[in-house]
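Deliverable D5.2: sample structural annotation.
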Amino acid sequence: MKMRSSALRSAVKAILYPLYERRLVRALDFSQTPHHVGVILDGNRRWAKANPDQMGGTSPARGHRAGAAKIIEFLGWCEEAKVKVVTIWLLSNDNFKRSPEEIDALLTIIGETVDGLKATGRWNIKSVGSLELLPEWLRDKLKESRSDDPGAIEVNVAIGYGGRREIVDSVKRYMVDAKEHGLTLDQAAEELSTEKIANFLYTAGQPDPELLIRTSGEQRLGGFLLWQSAQSEFYFCEAYWPDFRRVDFLRALRAYSLRHRRFGA
């Protein structure tokens, strides 16, 4: 009886969701789409526990693979919505505290994900994060994946990323640059400004994100784009990342379009 009821609900959703999606699309003004969308891909491990395979498997690696498979689909939705820059948080520097077995599996999946993104030939891929934390093979892969198609979406893959670390790295780069230009410490301190720091962020040259999305129901950023998100709008979705649907993305865009952005005024 439960299986029949579940099948009926699935059938109803299969009919209604496409209609709902079309309604959302008609209501959206894509000229007002955020230029830069950041996404915290959260909930992969919990998804695996909630959705065991036929053998009862609930390994984190299975969840991470399911999450990786969602990324290309999501970027396609961003293309349709005319988004220009997407930053996806694949691995934080804090994640390295997990077991070596899980980290090794996760890094392998990330490498495969980068290969998959590159193979599409559709997007400009840029790594953002502390590359020195990554194994050499992955650093090399990320460097080889860089591309520069003026008409393509900029896809920042945040790997080994932490917002506080980014700010520290930015200040260090500024100080090195100031020294190379012959400035004293006092002169460098005098000239330091928010604009100067922004010029040395991982995302330098890109617009700050107008919209940040986090899946899995958690309502915190965890240091994601800490500097850049000062004026961002936040959208928190209950779905685990592997279950994130186009209709969820459209809802996020609708919520963004309905907010009056005052920028502190």
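Annotation notes: The mean pLDDT is 89. Residues 34-161+207-257 form a domain with the Undecaprenyl pyrophosphate synthetase fold (CATH 3.40.1180.10).
The annotation will be released with the project's public dataset once the embargo ends.
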